[in-house]
Amino acid sequence: MYMSSVIKGRAAPGLYSQTSTSNCKVKTPINPHLREFHCSFEDEPICMFTQDKNDNFDWTRHSAATRDTKYTPNTGPSGDRSGSKQGFYMYIETSRPRKEGDQARLVSPLFNVAPKNPYGINNPPAYCFGFFYHMYGKHIGTLNAFLKQKGQTTSDTPVWSLTGNQGDRWKQAKVSIHPLSSFQVVLEGVRGPGIEGDIAIDDVTLEEGECRDPPPNLSSSAPPPSSHIWLLCVAAVITLLQGQR
């Protein structure tokens, strides 16, 4: 079965995708000889990702070369993660009729662990889920990532979240997940308070093993290190002036 995603790496027993036709459901390995699933959204049908039917609106596949910025100034990327204006990515368009709190959920294919799972329930396998995100604009809402497991009766498990303006640049997120059964990963964009709040994602990966040196998940509300230094300088000056009185 052909997949439009880019898949690369070395042997990885156990990483499978489950697909369906109109009459039957077929469990097919993404590629039994390769280690890493990598989707850059360059081709349709977006690596077998699907739009959640129970959300408020959909993610949009676009490139900077074709995107209309007439109604969304000062937000969104000027190119894909590699910097190419012809490259594609997925993003949420937050112009009207979207309203604050609206959610768009993009769901991955269903991945299965190895049929003969050597890990056992007490020692589940580890996978590194990664992606690049672009969150630029004064009205940026929230980007969430969830783990959705087959047979799970509770709500999806949150594994990563970030809120607010992160600057006009692509950044990478990585998070280790430990599914106990067949699973999907879900990327959810939540619309902020205004139209300058487009959120984009690119280069989604899933690889066996724990994440190595995952980037920190810093909230945009946290002051940068330079702010702390400036505050220390102000405190030192105040202390010095008080001592001279």
UniProtKB/TrEMBL annotation:
<keyword id="KW-0393">Immunoglobulin domain</keyword>
<dbReference type="GO" id="GO:0005886">
    <property type="term" value="C:plasma membrane"/>
</dbReference>
<protein>
    <recommendedName>
        <fullName>MAM domain-containing protein</fullName>
    </recommendedName>
</protein>
<keyword id="KW-0472">Membrane</keyword>
<keyword id="KW-0449">Lipoprotein</keyword>
<keyword id="KW-1003">Cell membrane</keyword>
<keyword id="KW-1015">Disulfide bond</keyword>
<dbReference type="Pfam" id="PF00629">
    <property type="entry name" value="MAM"/>
</dbReference>
<keyword id="KW-0325">Glycoprotein</keyword>
<keyword id="KW-0336">GPI-anchor</keyword>
<feature type="region of interest" description="Disordered">
    <location>
        <begin position="67"/>
        <end position="86"/>
    </location>
</feature>
<dbReference type="InterPro" id="IPR013320">
    <property type="entry name" value="ConA-like_dom_sf"/>
</dbReference>
<dbReference type="GO" id="GO:0098552">
    <property type="term" value="C:side of membrane"/>
</dbReference>
<dbReference type="InterPro" id="IPR051560">
    <property type="entry name" value="MAM_domain-containing"/>
</dbReference>
<feature type="domain" description="MAM">
    <location>
        <begin position="37"/>
        <end position="213"/>
    </location>
</feature>
<dbReference type="InterPro" id="IPR000998">
    <property type="entry name" value="MAM_dom"/>
</dbReference>
